[in-house]
Amino acid sequence: MNFTLPDFAPAYPEIFLLVMVCGVLMADLAWGDKRPNIAYLLAQLALLGCLLITFNTSGSEAVRTFSGMFVDDRLADILKMLVYITVSVVLVYSRTYISDRGILSGEFFSLALFATLGMMVMISASHFMTLYLGLELLSLSQYAMVALRRDSAGATEAAIKFFVLGALASGFLLYGMSMIYGATGSLDIASVTKVIEGGVISQGVLVVGLVFIVAGISFKLSAAPFHMWAPDVYEGASSAVVLFVGSAPKLAAFGFVMRLLVEGLGAMSGDWQGMLIILAITSMVIGNIAAIAQSNIKRMLAYSTISHMGFMLLGLIGANENGYSAAMFYVVVYVLMTMGTFGIIMLLSRAGFEADRLDDYKGLNRRNPWYAFIMLLLMFSMAGIPPTVGIYAKLSVLQAVLNAGYTWLAVLAVLLSLIGVFYYLRIVKLMYFDEPETDAIIAPKGDVKVLLSANGLAILAFGIFPQSLITLCTYAIQHST
C-alpha cells in the first residue's frame, strides 16, 4: 500500500494559527496574572503571521490538497487577508472595553482565534464536510464568546438563544447536504457540480436539499426570516463580542455562499435565485421597518445588519461575475462600516456604563467634534449618502440587479433603503442638534485613536476613490475556482 502525504503548503496559515492558539492558551496560563496583555499581543502576532504566510504562499493558480477537500485560490487568499485585518482591528478596539469589564483574558483571544480558524477553513473548503467543519468551529466559538460574561443575565440569555437557533440552522444545513449527497453520490463540490450538470438525477430531491441549504445559510447571514437571533444577541452580548460577530464572520459567510451555492450548486442557479429574491426582500422590509422603532443602538444596528444582508443578496441574484463582485464589494464595505460604528460605541462606553441608548449620543459634537464627524461619516455610508463609500456599494449591487433584468426589484430596493435613511440620520441629529446628557471625557488610547480615525477616513476615501476596492473584489471573483 502506497501512502503519500498531502501537500501541506496551501494550509500553512491554518496550521500556524492553530499552533499559535495553543501558544496563547499556554502563555495565558503561565503569565496571564502578571502580564494580562500577553494573550492580546500573541493574538496580534498570530494574525500578522497568518497575513504574511498567506501573502507569500498565494499563487496565480488554484491548488487543491487533502484529497481535494481544501482549495487555495485568489478568492480564498484575499478573503482570508481581509479576515485577518478585520479581526486585528476588532481586537484593538476591544482591548480597553474588555479590560474594564474583567474579561481581558486568554479565553477571549483564544476563542477569537479559533473562530478565525473556522472562517479560514470555510473560505478554503471544497468539500461539504470541510465547509461544515469550518462553520461549526466558527459557530461554537461565537456561542462561547457571547456567554463569556457569566455575571450578565443578558449575555447568558443571548448565548442560549444563539446556540439553540444555531443548532437548528446547522441541522437544516446538514439535512440539505445529505439530500444533495443522496442525489449525487458525492460530497466533493466539484463532483457534485459535474453530476448536476449531467442532468441524469432527480431534480426534486436536489431542490428539497437546496431549500434546507439556503435556510441554513440565511441564518448565518442573519437574513430574514431566519434573523430572530440577531437583535437579542446584539443587545445582550458585550459590544466587543457583537463587533466580532457582526464583522469578520460576514466575510466568511460570503466565502461559504460562493463555495456552496455558486461553485457547487451553480447549475441550479435558476432555483436558488428565486429563493434569494424572497430572502432579500423580506430582509430589507423587516430590517428597515423594525429598526425605526428601536431606542437601543445595538438592537437598531442588528436590524440594520439584516437589511444590509438583504441588499448584499441582491448581488448574487444575477448569477454572474459582476453580481458576485458587487456582493463581495458590499460585504467588505459593510464590515468596514460595522467596525467603525462599534468602535465608537465602545469608545463612549466606560466601566459600569454601556453607550447603547440612542440618547447617549446626544450632543456628541460638543463633547468631541472629531468622533462626532467619524460617526457622521459612518451613518452617511450606511444610509448610502455621497460622498461616502456606502453609495457605491449600493449602486454596484443595484447595477447587477438591473443587468439581470429585475428592474422592479431594483426600484423596490431603492424605496426600502430610503426608509433606512431615517434611522441613520436620527443619530446624526442627536449628535449635532441636541444637548449632551453627560460631560464625560472621551480619551481613547493612541492605537484606538489612530485606527478609529483611519477607519472613518477610509469610508470617505473609498467613497471618493472606490475603484481600487472594486478592482480587488472583481479580481478575487475572476480568479476563484
Structural features, described:
This protein is mainly α and 481 residues long. It has one domain. It is 75% helix and 1% strand. It has 20 helices and 2 strands. It has helices at 12-31, 38-57, 74-100, 106-124, 128-146, 153-184, 189-198, 203-221, 229-236, 239-245, 248-264, 269-292, 297-317, 321-348, 364-367, 369-383, 389-403, 407-433, 446-464, 467-478, and strands spanning 63-65, 70-72. The longest helix is centred in the middle third of the chain and has 32 residues, at 153-184. It is globular, with a radius of gyration of 22 Å. The model has no long low-confidence stretch (mean pLDDT 89).
Helix/strand-derived category reads mainly alpha
Shape: globular
Helix content: over 70%
Q: What's the structural domain tally?
A: 1
Order of helices and strands: HHEEHHHHHHHHHHHHHHHHHH
Secondary structure layout plus pairing:
Blueprint: H1 12-31, H2 38-57, E1 63-65, E2 70-72, H3 74-100, H4 106-124, H5 128-146, H6 153-184, H7 189-198, H8 203-221, H9 229-236, H10 239-245, H11 248-264, H12 269-292, H13 297-317, H14 321-348, H15 364-367, H16 369-383, H17 389-403, H18 407-433, H19 446-464, H20 467-478
Antiparallel strand pairs: 1-2
Helix pairs in contact: 1-2, 1-4, 2-3, 2-4, 3-4, 3-10, 3-11, 3-14, 3-20, 4-5, 4-11, 5-6, 6-8, 6-9, 7-11, 8-11, 8-12, 9-13, 10-14, 11-14, 12-13, 12-18, 13-14, 13-17, 13-18, 14-16, 14-17, 14-19, 14-20, 16-18, 16-19, 17-18, 17-19
